[in-house]
Design a protein that fits this description.
Two copies of one chain form a homodimer. By secondary structure, chain A is an alpha+beta fold. Chain A is built from nine helices and 19 strands. The first copy, chain A, has helices spanning about 10-20, 25-35, 75-90, 105-120, 205-225, 250-270, 305-315, 395-420, 425-430; strands at about 5, 45-50, 55-60, 95-100, 125-130, 140-145, 150-155, 155-160, 160-165, 170-175, 195, 235-240, 280-285, 290-295, 325-330, 335, 340-350, 350-360, 375. In chain A, the strands form four sheets. In chain A, strands 1, 2, 3, 16, 17, 18 and 19 form a seven-stranded antiparallel β-sheet that branches. A six-stranded mixed β-sheet of chain A has the order 6-7-5-4-10-11. A four-stranded antiparallel β-sheet of chain A has the order 12-15-13-14, sandwiched between helices. In chain A, a hairpin with a 2-residue loop joins strand 8 (about 155-160) and strand 9. In chain A, helix 1 packs across helix 8 (about 395-420). Chain A is globular and about 65 Å long. Residues about 1-10 of chain A have low confidence and may be disordered. The interface of A and B includes residues 76 and 386 of A.
């Protein structure tokens, strides 16, 4: 049931996986101790890229969609992990309000919401879904393509609490990334748990802050198990004064791209990697794979044409891009059915609970796969990420998946640090 | 993959399961709140009997063997739950010592130990196995029939700590039920976690104390979801001054049996159950299915013949029986391949992590199945106990298994209460 999984350059990755396997006890103990000091996010997903010589997260989502793509065999793991998450945040909760994105026409997204509802219900919560859409003025049941259904209800604000008619939840789980800012109805709440906290929304969040936190996590982890953190960490730079439409800040961007490419070239030389380095320019607050550009030379970001500038200047909810992160590109040498693929790992609380491959038949191994035309292989992670098998070869599926689970949890830990560090002072929070 | 599962009398059980399904949210929330107040045992297994009109635990084991019978698909659940258990008891542990029973010739038991070692290693612990056997004077590797191996090492006492040569663990997990008393090497330890605590061993533990705790748990649970607790709780009585060899205490036993049978008859009448009531007489401190007798009439316990008296008077480790519990017998109307079967549910921390059917081709539905000739169906619980499916019929496998998981966790909660209540004063503990 596991799809054919190939890695063009197996040598160094085998070495990295072997290293993880040989240090699994230290890794797990170190993780356990980290989670004593840091509160894990309720849930998260991360995109990994596996170039053979490098296995690294390139994105971490604190409002993960795509739960519908998780294999049903992982449901018990999801439920068990969700129980931990609920106990950690609101142990005496009876009712939970789930607030999704406004995509009522996206069947996949709606199935994702329905799957989340079913996981959370199984932890013993009365779960209902409250919509921010103005057209939802009464409970509205949507039929899903998979035979299920989902009822959206209008949100009701009463004093300092948000709920539904006849439903006063102790906790509100956001599956809406707040790209458009915090809706007025969520401002100035008290006595209710907002999960994740509002400042984790994309109106405040910056990829570069996550990268900075991951930098430190990767460095510490590298010391613990004795690896060069570069093997699991994409280098990055930031340009914070860019305006693609007005063509200002291009020089800063070009200089950062050049500096980063130079650093990558040095690393490729050190590791004798015979590939062309590239970087990915991304809106620092962007999501959904929007506002992303692959660059192999600094000259490519100077004198962008109108189409390129339009593409880079606006992200989800029409937000203008002013800050970009320039991230070391990590080739993906994995393929599923001959198409380029990257693993996406899902987590709840501090546990890996599933994953799948994002596959794109039209993209190259140095391109962003989170783009129209992508599809998912939900069967891929038939086995789970927590069970390395020392008796099997380092590149056997359980062991490769263990390596994915380790790196994904490092990104999760970085997100936890990032959320702690960006927590606003109490006055701002309200 | 789920074996054919039939229940002769489906009506009332369907009603019970339907009731559990309809109250899953209350049940899960109530459980969550209970685990805020009570510390779950590290691990446990429980034998359930399902008579259709009644679904009840008849035994709870705090030193569960048989992990080798758990389907491998449940390994991720075990590892995840074990991580919770470790974090709860000794989050900064690096090394864990596992102390098994002295059955070095029992291949099944050794495979059980090896399975436990692998689960615990995957939580990031350095796990080694210390034997109480005097003949283990040096590390001894045993080859297992399933292709694995297990290394037993001699225990080493140093001051107030127990370990192995060059191995100073922070925690000691007992898979040895201490039927023969606490070995001298474990007396007066400090600074090390003993799991479960010593007073949970069979040298101290009494089935009747567990039954008393379960009584209260079942009553409270019954109130929460509105069922007669008898539906999930076997009635019981105690005789504490019995000597089968000297034939003293027989009258007390006969009177208790009679009183219990009378109470059961009344309940059968109330529920219109057309079955012959029976009780099971068990050594109050016994285990391994030893010292167990099925009785349908009080006269059967008077004037026992020599064979019966021998069978009842001695349990594991040659302990003399002085106290017995008389437990309401619960028929098992489940069959696997036409043989009588009972579910055995395994738990770690507060989670159900697997189970199987104990099957006996030579026994009747009102007999103890934990007897020579029994076998196990590890494939049975292909699906897990935490995922009721409201869209399916109440007797569909996921829903039946959910009911098992609920009742098993009630027994687990009772064990937690029992351990708390029997904790010796500090002076005794040392």
């Amino acid at each position: 049931m596991v799809p054919h999984l190939t890695t063009a350059l197996t040598g160094p990755l085998l070495e990295l996986e072997k290293h993880f396997l040989g240090h699994a006890t230290e890794i797990e103990r170190w993780m356990r101790v980290q989670w004593q000091d840091h509160m894990p996010p309720f849930y998260a997903s991360t995109d990994l890229r596996n170039s053979g010589f490098k296995l690294a997260p390139v994105d971490l989502n604190l409002f993960p969609g795509g739960w519908n793509n998780i294999n049903d065999v992982f449901m018990p793991l999801c439920v068990q992990a969700a129980q931990d998450a609920i106990e950690r945040i609101c142990p005496d909760a009876r009712q939970l309000l789930l607030v999704p994105e406004n995509h009522t026409r996206n069947q996949f997204y709606l199935q994702n919401v329905a799957k989340l509802v079913s996981v959370l219900q199984l932890t013993g919560l009365d779960v209902r879904v409250g919509s921010l859409l103005p057209e939802i003025t009464a409970p509205t049941t949507l039929e899903l393509a998979n035979g299920g259904s989902l009822t959206l209800e209008p949100l009701v604000r009463t004093g300092n609490r948000v709920g539904l008619a006849g439903f006063n939840p102790c906790a509100i789980l956001l599956n809406n990334d707040l790209s458009g800012g915090v809706p007025a109805i969520f401002k100035g709440l008290d006595e209710q748990w907002l999960i994740p906290p509002l400042h984790a929304g994309w109106h405040m969040r910056r990829k570069s802050r996550h990268a900075a936190a991951y930098d430190r996590v990767a460095r510490e982890f590298g010391e613990v198990i004795g690896i060069d953190p570069w093997r699991i960490n994409p280098e990055y730079g930031v340009c914070s004064q860019i305006n693609f439409q007005e063509r200002t800040g291009e020089e800063c961007l070009a200089a950062e791209v050049d500096s980063l490419l130079t650093r990558i070239r040095a690393k490729y030389k050190e590791y004798e990697v015979d590939e062309t380095p590239f970087v990915v320019v991304k809106a620092d607050a962007g999501t959904y794979g929007m506002g992303v550009m692959t660059v192999r030379d600094a000259s490519e970001v100077v004198g962008l044409n109108r189409r390129q500038r339009n593409k880079m200047s606006v992200v989800k909810e029409g937000l203008q891009v002013q800050e970009v992160i320039i991230q070391e590109g990590v080739h993906t040498f994995e393929t599923v059915d001959d198409a380029v693929a990257e693993p996406v790992v899902y987590m709840m609380d501090r546990f890996v609970v599933g994953g799948f491959y994002r596959v794109h038949t039209e993209r190259g191994r140095d391109e962003n796969l989170n783009a129209p035309g992508m599809h998912f292989k939900p069967l891929a992670f038939q086995t789970c990420c927590s069970l390395p098998d020392c008796r099997q070869a380092p590149d056997a599926a359980p062991n490769r998946f263990y390596a994915y689970g380790v790196v994904a949890r490092l990104a999760l830990l970085a997100a936890s640090v990032e959320i702690e560090e960006t927590e606003p002072a109490e006055a701002d929070a309200a």
